[in-house]
């Protein structure tokens, strides 16, 4: 492992004689990008055939760094690509069970950090493999952050922009409240619900059961870690859907017994890709 120390603005740490980090204000902007670029060039020079695994970069930096070195460096960001790949694998398995196509689903990702947008990117790739255009694929992917459904606007972070929606496209939108999770699931006709929000219990009984109006077998994936942060508990999902829900979780959960049948809970964790 190689640790990149870009300084800190934490005065308490800077004043601590036992602090082992670089005693310098945190690098930002061009200074930050320049530092990472110098590292990437050195890495490629010393290890020309090695894969560089970028780990724990902040959201926008994670996407910017990945895209900047996409063709120059063999690199991988587990938070973005690992999470996206394992989620898509789980969804594809659910499609085999449902005997339905990916392109006929409506996806909602609650939590638009690096992991959530990484999942959206992989779903888009899967939809395009089934013949959809970029625009058609993205129209089937809804993303939510802490403020609600992500709507296109000037203040949007670049990595969120490509999955943002135009208000005119939202036929169910009548008031601002309609941008919240429960209304989007109901109004958007969501059939695949994915959680990367870290908001424990936000996939409520009402939200889960509203999906049954759009599909006989809803795919529900509370991926937030640890188990205490999961958006829903598998036992509840099976009970609320009378065993029809297809569940994948980010943390390990024990098998669930429902109506005399045992359901093994599949774990969708990026460690399997890593």
Break the fold down into its secondary structure elements and pairings.
Layout: H1 11-14, H2 29-46, E1 52-54, H3 59-68, E2 75-77, H4 78-98, E3 107-110, H5 114-129, H6 134-139, E4 141-145, E5 148-149, H7 158-161, H8 181-188, E6 192-195, H9 205-211, E7 219-222, H10 234-240, E8 246-249, E9 256-258, E10 261-263, E11 266-267
Parallel strand pairs: 1-2, 3-4, 3-6, 6-7, 7-8, 8-11
Antiparallel strand pairs: 4-5, 9-10
Helix pairs in contact: 4-5, 8-9
Structural notes for this entry:
This protein has ten helices and eleven strands. It has 274 residues and is α/β, with parallel strands linked by helices. The strands form three sheets. Strands 5-4-3-6-7-8-11 form a seven-stranded mixed β-sheet, with helices on both faces. It has a two-stranded parallel ribbon with strand order 1-2. It has a two-stranded antiparallel ribbon with strand order 9-10. Strand 6, helix 9 and strand 7 form a beta-alpha-beta unit.
Q: Which word captures the global form?
A: globular
Radius of gyration, in angstroms, nearest whole number? 21 Å
Helix/strand-derived class? alpha/beta
SSE pattern: HHEHEHEHHEEHHEHEHEEEE
Number of strands: 11
Number of helices: 10
What is the percentage of strand-forming residues?
A: 5-15%
Largest sheet: 7 strands, mixed
Q: Helicity range of the residues?
A: 25-40%
Order of the strands making up the biggest sheet: 5-4-3-6-7-8-11
Give the CA-CA distance, first to last residue: 15 Å
- Parts with pLDDT < 50 across at least 5 consecutive residues: none
Average predicted local confidence, pLDDT:
91
